[in-house]
């Protein structure tokens, strides 16, 4: 029985070392930005789910060819983790023809295009281009507190309804 217990301890120690090794490898070799964007898109919940759960939503329109999108990918993933369970993050490949309807409905005319939607389904603003993480955090915090956004960008719906009920 003692030999079995020793073997179990060795297996547990080896498993722990393997986990630490994998963690260190992943920290030293983060995923390529394009892989990260595609993974975020695959993992994104459908927009209908986002709108039904009572949380603010960020819709991130990106394209494979967009250097700013790739540069922002690690920031967007970090924000997704930081605000997990409180803010929905939806990544959409804006160059994919299958997403043309959504691109049109959000009036995307520049990539990256971050549409910020309140928990009450109102599109507050769109931030286009490179946006620093601290600004995005301020925006997320304002969305969560149901306060006016400190940074207002492009109003794609000027003079029209900002309600997702009307947009979709």
UniProtKB/TrEMBL annotation:
One of the record's GO molecular function terms: oxidoreductase activity, acting on a sulfur group of donors, disulfide as acceptor
InterPro entries on file: Thioredoxin-like_sf, Thioredoxin_domain, TxlA/HCF164
Domain of life: Eukaryota
Pfam families: Thioredoxin (PF00085)
Domain Thioredoxin, first and last residues per copy: 5-145
PANTHER family the UniProt entry points to: THIOREDOXIN-LIKE PROTEIN HCF164, CHLOROPLASTIC
Protein name: Thioredoxin domain-containing protein
Higher taxonomy: Eukaryota, Sar, Stramenopiles, Ochrophyta, Raphidophyceae
